[in-house]
Write a structure and sequence with these properties.
About 20% of the residues lie in helices and about 40% in strands. It is of the alpha+beta class and about 170 residues long. Strands 1, 2, 3, 4, 5, 6, 7, 8 and 9 form a nine-stranded antiparallel β-sheet that branches. β7 and β8 form a beta hairpin.
């Protein structure tokens, strides 16, 4: 099994939209790695996230807004030969994005961002009260770089090669 870089934007965005969560990596206030799973929305190369207005992640991001965000498809165990341990692997796809977090303070823009997040999970329309908008921290990450890989793909040189899956 091999790992293949994905460069087609349409496939990369399909991977992002298929994810239920993303993992956001940052550097905490003590200079240590810090990773949290989050709900998200994605539109026009901007990732939207939301959280409580205070906490460890907010303190870390106020000190250093650089983040790395990873999206993954569901992983599937695969093997090329049932009796060969080294032929086992996980099949799936991932997208890694880097950027800087800015916090959205404008209430109208917060509502727009929350609607983008909710579109990831629901077809319903939502309304937000002013107290709710004031009590949520909306993160906006303009994607500075994006890479994507498909891992556990069948080796095209294998005699058992057949690959009809999209990502």
């Amino acid at each position: 099994m091999v790992t293949i870089a994905i460069e087609e934007k349409q496939i990369i965005e399909k991977i992002i939209r298929s994810a239920q969560t993303c993992h956001v990596a940052m550097i905490d206030t003590e200079g240590l790695p810090y990773v949290i799973p989050m709900n998200f929305g994605y539109e026009e190369e901007i990732i939207y996230l939301h959280s409580a207005p205070e906490g460890s992640s907010i303190e870390a991001l106020e000190k250093n807004p650089e983040v790395c965000i990873v999206f993954c498809t569901d992983a599937v165990l695969r093997y090329q030969h049932q009796d060969v341990a080294c032929s086992y692997g996980i099949k799936g796809s991932s997208v890694m994005c880097r950027g800087k977090v800015t916090f959205e303070e404008n209430l109208d823009e917060k509502a727009k961002a929350l609607n983008i997040i909710m579109r990831q999970y629901s077809d319903r329309q939502f309304k937000y009260s002013e107290p709710a908008l004031r009590n949520v921290k909306v993160w906006k990450v303009e994607v500075a770089s994006m890479t994507s890989k498909r891992f556990g793909a069948p080796n095209p040189n294998s005699r058992n090669y057949k690959d009809s899956e999209e990502f």
